[in-house]
Amino acid sequence: MKLSPILALLIVSVHGAANAAPDLPQVGDVHAPLTVMMPKIPDGGWFTSAELGAINTSGNTSGTSVTGKIDARHETSQWSHEFIASGYFKEDEYENEEGELQRTRSAERWATSAKASFKLLGDGRRAFILGSHVNDKFGAYVRYSSLSVGYGSRWYTAPDKTLDVEIGPGYFNGKREYENGVEEEEDGLTIRGAAQFRWQVSPSAFFAQTVSVEKGTSNTHSVAETSLSTKINGSMQMKAGFSVRNDSSVPDDKKNTDTQTSLTMVYSF
Fold first, then answer.
1. 3-state SS of the chain?
2. The domain 2-267: what is its CATH number?
3. Domain extents in the chain
4. What is the pLDDT of residues 175-200, one digit of tens each?
């Protein structure tokens, strides 16, 4: 099997220069070595990043997989907003009984989320509302939407490390599809907990770990993402990522856990 180079491009960084609230992270130069803090965004300003990676295989096994993500953040003196959209799909190529080449989709997932945080609760403390929606054609839930509110705070701060934790109630609505074509709708109240750990391993390497768990009456939905980014030059980075999605209750023909490993090249300007 021959594996072509991983294609990756595109991260767009937009920032303005102004004095921001003292509790906002330091911006600095986007071309400087990675820092443990998120870029500082002035009141009314935006910071946007995007990444795209692809793998194409040929030979005994042929196929294509693509993953991408856009993350946009907006800051005011009282509110912080974050909007995320991501997608992943995989197509495999094979020969049918007649020797004709056929392509089949083996993975297809699209996800969006929007979050608003109220910052006037003190240093590092915020109230938030979060909405998310996932379409996963081959997942335990083919559709999963959730809405949650809660409280978040910074539990640990060091020159090179931070730990943020959130907790609050929520509501979810999901749809399952069984192998026999039967569809089933589920909804109910949840308790959501989440944590994010950031670590500046070196002046040019940055580690991040996020975990979120939504506990409902019929299912526990968990997502964990791990990433390590390293600078290549003043405007390029390489990012390795690993994500795990788990549902405690799934149809008989589905697995509880889905994983995804990615390696992307990102470009900053």
1. CEECCCEEECCCCCCCCCCCCCCCCCCCCCCCCCCCCCCCCCCCCEEEEEEEEEEEEECCCEEEEEEEEEEEEEECCCEEEEEEEEEEEEEEEEECCCCCEEEEEEEEEEEEEEEEEECCCCCCEEEEEEEEEEEECCCCCCEEEEEEEEEEEEEEEECCEEEEEEEEEEEEEEEEECCCCCEEEEEEEEEEEEEEEEEEEECCEEEEEEEEEEEECCCEEEEEEEEEEEECCCCEEEEEEEEEEEECCCCCCCCCEEEEEEEEEEECC
2. 2.40.160.20
3. 2-267
4. 988 877 788 888 999 999 999 999 99
